[in-house]
Amino acid sequence: MDRLYASYLDIPPITRTWASLTVAMAILTQLQVLSPFHLYFDTFFIYKRQQYWRLFTSYFFVAPFGVDFLFHIYILSRYSRLLEEGSYRNRPADFALLLIGSALLTLVIAHLLPTMPSTWALPFLSGPVTSALTYVWARRNPFLRMSLFGLFEFQAPFLPWAMAGLSALLHGAVPTADLLGLGIGHVYWFLEDIYPRTVGAGGRARGKVLKTPRFMMLLFGQQPSDVPEVVTEVPPPPPPQQQQQQDAGAVRVPAGEEAAVDGGARDFAGADRDELREPLLANPGDAR
User: Fold this and answer.
1) Which architecture does CATH list for 1-220?
2) I need a surface site. Which of 84, 210, 213, 235 has the fewest CB within 10 A?
3) Global pTM?
């Protein structure tokens, strides 16, 4: 039990919170504490009946316990964790911006789609967000080889499309959530990874478009990008002109005097040894 709890705590905090709320919602519906009919997204019930909690619960309820739920929670926890521990390591605010931006864009588009029982309806909004995260991760690992149930092998960028095809095959309907997530993920990937590297007028890079607000960085404990890090640097050596000026200010001895000083020092050293030795040899008794 302790090992299981330790493994749970090893999950990054944002992914852990999202997955925990999803599992908790499934448990409550399985125990019939909540009904799925009171959780899904529907503009009529939200705005006509003032059931505003649906704006929140539609992001965390996927399906009752079953194959669909296990598959979704696996995809959510795996690729969200890979992003949070990889591209967004030590950048929780940036990762939260990706999640919140994907969720808000999903909410806006859901208002434009028809409601149930249309096949294009989007009753639960967690699917597009999960698909968007998977798309971003796949784009950032273009050369990674993957397989689907050990039957088909492909490179990582094709993973979201394979998941959309599998969803259409299992449910026999248009995979609205997966396709919407692909579109949202592509927009984010282009604005975050591609557009800042393009060259604009004057031959300069265009720079980032998606910038995390400062209050989010402070909220998640991420260092703001405009705060410079404290770096201790070794001062560079002085330029040649300054070095010449320092050398010119030093005391110099003329060449003749320098030779005389060196010769005197050598004579003094030799005389010093002879003078010290002679008294000892001449008067051995005094030495005792």
Assistant:
1) Up-down Bundle (1.20)
2) 235
3) 0.74
